[in-house]
Amino acid sequence: MKKFIELTETQFNNITKVQCVKINSNTIKTKLNTLLEHHEVFLFYIWLTANIAREEWNDESTNFSLREQYYSKGFLVCTFSLKVLANMFKMDRTDILNNIKKMEKLGWIKIEQIKSNDNFKLQNVYILGEWKIVVVNGKKEYIEILYFNN
Questions:
Q1: How confident is the model at residue 111 (pLDDT cuts 50, 70, 90)?
Q2: Which of 16, 58, 93, 147 lies 20 to 30 Å (CA to CA) from residue 75?
Q3: Can you tell me the distance from the alpha carbon of 85 to that of 57, in angstroms, rounded to the nearest whole number?
Q4: What contacts 51, CB < 8 A, 6 or more positions away?
Q5: Any bridge partners for residue 127, and if so which?
Q6: Cβ-contact 109, 147 below 8 angstroms
């Protein structure tokens, strides 16, 4: 579990403007050219953020230990096989891999590999950001910070 961080109310408000799955409007304005150039991966990225494994993720029923290996360490992640992503987005696997590489190059995601709980299957884990517990005026607050907003 991550350590608590002391923040002033102003610092907390600045962070929460760019937290959670919300995409900061200032980020969109400053990255508009990048988004237009890479519009085909933006929807893919948004879909990944909608599938982040959080506290309710069940490591056993899903066969991947995302909560134990990532969420409990402060990371916001999701995982899908390339086959599932290709079917979902009606693309071939090469296009899916190219989109994933673009998102990584843009700094929107980081990629690691994870073995299934039975050590039979290996697939990508997409790290989309981090979560933290911060203390604001003596009150603990949960925040999420996506790499996209940096």
A1: very high
A2: 93
A3: 19
A4: 78, 80
A5: 77, 110
A6: yes
| The model's pTM | 0.79
Side chain identity, residue 48 = L
- Residue 9 CA to residue 35 CA, distance in Å, equals 31
Break the chain into its structural domains and give their ranges: 5-149
**SS3 per residue for the chain:** CCCCEEECHHHHHHHHCCECCCCCHHHHHHCHHHHHHCHHHHHHHHHHHCCCECCCCCHHHHCCCHHHHCHHHCEEEEECCHHHHHHHHCCCHHHHHHHHHHHHHCCCCEEEEEECCCCCCEEEEEEEEEEEEEEECCEEEEEEEEHHHC
**Which pLDDT does position 18 carry in this prediction?**
42
Q: Cα separation of 34 and 31, whole Å?
A: 5
